[in-house]
C-alpha cells in the first residue's frame, strides 16, 4: 500500500507539471497575445482602440486643398504652398462657464433666476477670470435667464470693450441619450440638433488668417458643456452624464493649430471657498 501511495503522488505531481505547462503555453502563445498581452506605459507598441480623427472639424489642410494632378516638381511645389496657406497658425482657447446656482422651483425660464449664492458664485468667477490677465476676445452667453445673469455679473470684472453676443444654440437641453440609460428619459430631437450645431459653431481650429491666439468665454449650461467636452476630446459622447460640473465653474479647452485638443481644466472652482461650491 505504501508503494502505491508513492505512485499516486508521483502521478499527481506529473499531471500538475503538464497542466501548468499547457496553461503557460496558452497564455503566452501568439493566438492569445492580444487577450493577455501587457505593455509598459511608456511604449507605443500597441494599437489604439480608437484612433484620433485629424479632420474632426473639417479644416485639415489636406481635406481643403485640391489634390495635386501630377508628381511633377512644379506641381508639387504649388500643392505644398497651398497646404501651407491653409494651415492654422494660432490657438483657440475656449472657457466654458456654467451659470451660478438658480431657483429650480421656477415654472418658467424667467422665474429661474440666480439665488443669492448663485450671484456670489458668478462674482467670484468673474474675479478669477479677471485675475488671469487675459485679453478676452469674445463673451457669448446662452439666452436663458440664469446664464444671462451670470454673464452680466462676470462682465463687470472684464474689459468694457469686450465683444458680447447672445446665442440660442447654447441653451440648456439634453444632447443625446446617456449611457448608462436614465429611466425612460429621452432627449428632444431638436435639442440634439441644436447642441450639435453649437459645437460646430464654436469648436474648430483657428482660420489660417488668424495670427494671434484668441480667448473666448461661453457662459452656458452643464449638459451643454459636458457634451462639448466629450465631443472635443473624441470620447464617447453618450458618456456626458458621467461628468459633474459645479455652478459657475471654469472648464478650459484649447484647440491647437494642428487640430489637437487639450483639456486644461474641468469644473474648476478652486477660486471659491468650500461653503460657496454647489453643483445641484
From TrEMBL:
<keyword id="KW-0496">Mitochondrion</keyword>
<comment type="similarity">
    <text>Belongs to the phosphoglycerate mutase family. BPG-dependent PGAM subfamily.</text>
</comment>
<dbReference type="Pfam" id="PF00300">
    <property type="entry name" value="His_Phos_1"/>
</dbReference>
<dbReference type="GO" id="GO:0090141">
    <property type="term" value="P:positive regulation of mitochondrial fission"/>
</dbReference>
<dbReference type="InterPro" id="IPR013078">
    <property type="entry name" value="His_Pase_superF_clade-1"/>
</dbReference>
<comment type="subunit">
    <text>Interacts with Pk92B/ASK1.</text>
</comment>
<dbReference type="GO" id="GO:0005741">
    <property type="term" value="C:mitochondrial outer membrane"/>
</dbReference>
<feature type="region of interest" description="Disordered">
    <location>
        <begin position="61"/>
        <end position="81"/>
    </location>
</feature>
<dbReference type="InterPro" id="IPR051021">
    <property type="entry name" value="Mito_Ser/Thr_phosphatase"/>
</dbReference>
<feature type="binding site">
    <location>
        <position position="146"/>
    </location>
    <ligand>
        <name>substrate</name>
    </ligand>
</feature>
<comment type="function">
    <text>Displays phosphatase activity for serine/threonine residues, and dephosphorylates and activates Pk92B kinase. Has apparently no phosphoglycerate mutase activity.</text>
</comment>
<dbReference type="GO" id="GO:0004722">
    <property type="term" value="F:protein serine/threonine phosphatase activity"/>
</dbReference>
<dbReference type="InterPro" id="IPR029033">
    <property type="entry name" value="His_PPase_superfam"/>
</dbReference>
<keyword id="KW-0472">Membrane</keyword>
<protein>
    <recommendedName>
        <fullName>Serine/threonine-protein phosphatase PGAM5, mitochondrial</fullName>
        <ecNumber>3.1.3.16</ecNumber>
    </recommendedName>
</protein>
<keyword id="KW-1000">Mitochondrion outer membrane</keyword>
<keyword id="KW-0378">Hydrolase</keyword>
Amino acid at each position: 500500500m505504501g508503494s502505491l501511495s508513492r505512485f499516486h503522488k508521483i502521478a499527481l505531481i506529473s499531471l500538475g507539471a503538464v497542466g501548468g505547462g499547457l496553461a503557460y503555453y496558452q497564455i503566452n502563445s501568439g493566438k492569445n497575445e492580444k487577450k493577455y498581452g501587457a505593455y509598459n506605459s511608456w511604449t507605443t507598441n500597441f494599437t489604439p482602440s480608437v484612433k484620433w480623427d485629424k479632420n474632426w472639424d473639417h479644416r485639415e489642410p489636406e481635406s481643403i486643398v485640391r489634390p495635386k494632378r501630377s508628381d511633377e516638381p512644379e506641381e508639387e511645389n504649388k500643392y505644398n504652398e497651398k497646404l501651407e496657406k491653409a494651415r492654422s497658425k494660432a490657438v483657440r482657447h475656449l472657457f466654458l462657464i456654467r451659470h451660478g446656482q438658480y431657483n429650480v422651483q421656477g415654472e418658467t425660464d424667467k422665474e429661474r433666476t440666480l439665488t443669492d449664492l448663485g450671484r456670489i458664485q458668478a462674482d467670484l468667477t468673474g474675479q478669477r477670470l479677471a485675475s488671469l490677465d487675459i485679453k478676452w476676445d469674445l463673451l457669448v452667453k446662452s439666452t436663458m435667464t440664469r446664464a444671462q445673469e451670470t454673464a452680466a455679473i462676470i462682465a463687470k470684472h472684464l474689459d468694457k470693450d469686450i465683444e458680447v453676443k447672445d446665442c440660442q444654440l447654447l441653451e440648456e437641453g439634453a444632447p443625446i441619450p446617456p449611457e448608462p440609460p436614465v429611466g425612460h428619459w429621452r432627449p428632444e430631437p431638436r435639442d440634439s440638433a441644436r447642441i450639435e450645431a453649437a459645437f460646430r459653431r464654436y469648436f474648430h481650429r483657428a482660420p489660417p488668417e488668424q495670427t494671434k491666439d484668441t480667448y473666448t468665454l461661453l457662459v452656458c449650461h452643464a449638459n451643454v458643456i459636458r457634451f462639448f467636452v466629450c465631443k472635443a476630446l473624441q470620447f464617447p459622447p453618450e458618456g456626458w452624464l458621467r461628468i459633474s460640473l459645479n455652478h459657475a465653474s471654469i472648464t478650459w479647452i484649447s484647440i491647437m493649430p494642428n487640430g489637437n485638443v487639450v483639456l486644461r481644466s474641468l469644473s474648476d472652482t478652486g477660486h471659491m471657498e468650500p461653503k460657496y461650491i454647489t453643483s445641484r
